[in-house]
UniProtKB/TrEMBL annotation:
Compartmental location: Cytoplasm, Nucleoid
Similarity comment text for this entry: Belongs to the MraZ family.
Quaternary state and interactors: Forms oligomers.
Protein name: Transcriptional regulator MraZ
SpoVT-AbrB domain span: 5-47, 76-119
HAMAP family (UniProt xref): MraZ (MF_01008)
Pfam family, one: MraZ
Keywords associated with the record: Cytoplasm, DNA-binding, Repeat, Transcription, Transcription regulation
Length: 143
């Protein structure tokens, strides 16, 4: 389970050092893809494969399904962390997420999310009050 907030930096070659506590879970390979809200999702390879099978089972005769499948799979990059826990973030993925030097990596249970530091702060500023006021209808029976 991926939890917490971390503040790594992109180096001059576009590499990001993953938090040490996640390295074992990602040592077998990981998939970096475009996420919603202009962040990047980082899935362990097995988790991504499981999700990909579900996405592939959707009816390709549906135009929205085809568009989603194309965007998801064309925008995914397979990586294996180096000995220092770094992964290369492809230029197209950096552009999509607006990544600069200062980044934020958050745990989101089954995935990590990579955000540009300023974009994450804007997101938090915009959504923090709504989170504080969340009522049970978002997740009925959970709280």
């Amino acid at each position: 389970m991926f939890l917490g907030t971390h503040h790594p930096r992109l180096d001059d070659k576009g590499r990001l050092t993953l938090p040490a506590k996640y390295r074992d879970a990602l040592a077998g390979g990981l998939m970096v893809t475009k996420g919603q809200d202009h962040c990047l999702y980082v899935f362990p390879r097995a988790e991504f494969e499981q999700m990909a099978r579900k996405v592939a089972e959707a009816p390709f005769t549906n135009e929205a399904v085809r568009a989603y499948q194309r965007y998801l799979f064309a925008g995914t990059d397979e990586q294996r962390p180096d000995g220092q826990g770094r992964v290369l973030i492809a230029p197209e993925l950096r552009r999509y997420a607006g990544l600069t030097k200062e980044c934020v990596v958050i745990g989101a249970i089954n995935r990590l999310e990579i955000w540009d530091s300023l974009a994450w702060q804007r997101y938090m500023d915009e959504h923090e009050q709504r989170y504080a006021e969340t009522r049970e209808e978002v997740f009925p029976g959970l709280f």
